[in-house]
Amino acid sequence: MYNMIPIFIFTFLLTLLSGVFCIPVLKKVKASQTILHYVKEHKSKQGIPTMGGIIFLLSFVLTFFVYSFGFNRFSLIAVVIMIAYGIVGFLDDYIKIHYKRNLGLLAYQKIIFQVLIALIASLFVYYNNITVLNIPFTKEEIDFKIWIIPLTMFVFLSTSNCVNLTDGIDGLAGGTSFVCFIVLAIMLYIKADILDISGIIILGEEYKNLFYLSIGGAGAMLGFLIFNSYPAKVFMGDTGSLALGGIIASLAVLSGYTLFIPIIGIMFVVSGISVILQVFSFQVFGKRIILMAPFHHHLQQKGYHESKITAFYMITTLVVSLIMLYFSF
Question: Which of 34, 40, 111, 202 keeps 20 to 30 A from 128, CA to CA?
């Protein structure tokens, strides 16, 4: 694990350099999305470039090629899944920018692409026997057998879309993801170390490479936050948020930590559930349960500053994850 610090620094600096180069280019090609003014605090964001996910996607890919070693099929498929989701997000962003509208891919088009990616990932998981999952807050495991396929598909679809919903204010999705990557890195380090001690070399190397990706993810997010924290100079767009959901889900699913995702990504879950409940309540009862969904917009409507909300999301994710780590490991 001696590469941990070099990987973190490498991806951090690479993301900074990528941002310095890409942001002027995005501005030059006018890659900015029309901002809806239903959140009055967002009026000043008009003209800020989007599709900034390209900045850290490059870092992820180069980290894999530079630092992966030995048996690295799991980390390779994780990067491929991330890129696939990133491409879906890129198409969505491109349509919004090109046609100067806030609607990109139609809902059914986006879902079809996401389902296909999730299905391929799920079949990879099943046919590589990653069906035994650790149970949070216990030392127990459970074998889902063939049922791992629908479970994995659900996890990829929900994670990618929940991260996408969380990307609504400066630094929110990036900051929360930064904490998630740190927590996943700790979990992967523990699992890889146990396998090393047990002499299971091949699987140990697979998890070491996933660990390196997690560390790289943390470095990339920290670098991206230099540009994306309040006041943001660039937005990650669907290009970044869908890709982030894909890589976070991949790191957990491929290491048998699928059931931990709702805990590690607790605030992503809050975003998704707040939207579902809001829509359900409004359609069935004609009433809203919060001022505005997702939940971070509700907090904005209550008068909380973007930076305060981002800090709250990051701290909550960290505290909940630390409690999980204490009782699970």
Answer: 111
176 or 35: which leads in pLDDT: 176
Residues 6+ apart with CB under 8 A from 291: 297, 298, 301, 302
What pLDDT is attached to residue 107?
86
Report which secondary-structure segment, H or E, holds 179. helix 172-198
Please tell me whether the peptide bond between 231 and the residue prior to it is cis, using omega within 30 degrees of 0. Answer: yes
User: Residues near 93 by Cβ (< 8 Å), separated by ≥ 6?
Assistant: 31, 33, 50, 51, 104, 237, 238, 239
Each residue's pLDDT tens digit, 64-119: 999 999 999 999 999 999 999 999 999 999 998 888 777 789 889 999 999 999 99
The residue behind tokens 């939207």 is 275
Confidence category of residue 288, pLDDT binned at 50, 70, 90: very high
Give me the half-sphere count of Cα atoms (radius 13 Å) on the Cβ side of residue 229.
14
Comparison of pLDDT for 44 and 68, the residue scoring more: 68
Task: Map residue 137 onto helix, strand or coil.
Answer: coil
Residue 133 backbone dihedrals phi, psi, to 5 degrees? -115, 140
Q: Are 191 and 207 in contact (CB under 8 A)?
A: yes
CA distance 119 to 107: 18
For residue 28, the tally of other CB atoms under 10 A from its CB is 9
Q: What is the pLDDT at residue 199?
A: 86
pLDDT value at position 45? 77
Q: How many residues does the chain have?
A: 329
CB atoms within 10 A of CB 242: 31
Q: In the chain, what are the domain boundaries?
A: 4-259
What is the DSSP-derived secondary structure letter of residue 35?
P
Contacts of 282 (CB under 8 A, 6+ apart): 288
Spatial contact of 258 and 152, defined as CB atoms under 8 Å apart: yes
Helical packing angle, 73-98 and 53-67, nearest 10°: 160
Establish how many alpha carbons lie within 13 A of residue 80's alpha carbon, considering only the half-sphere containing its beta carbon.
11
